[in-house]
Amino acid sequence: HKAIRRQRQMCKETEYIQRVRVDKIAQMLSEGKTVSESAFELGFPDIKNISRTFKKIKGVSPSEYSKMKRK
Q: Which of 25, 45, 49, 64 is deepest in the core (most CB within 10 A)?
């Protein structure tokens, strides 16, 4: 039972970290930065990975989000 609880806790921590990073990227995109610049500044080595995570959390891709915020 302890192992299962710990595994769930780790999953929640990972999800929390992902959400915080995605929120930060969203803020940076709103400020006019590119996806690449934002990912690099936050230490994401793989833009495909952050794009997938961003879309999972926000419901749109980072580039779509950026376009929406520019309007």
A: 25
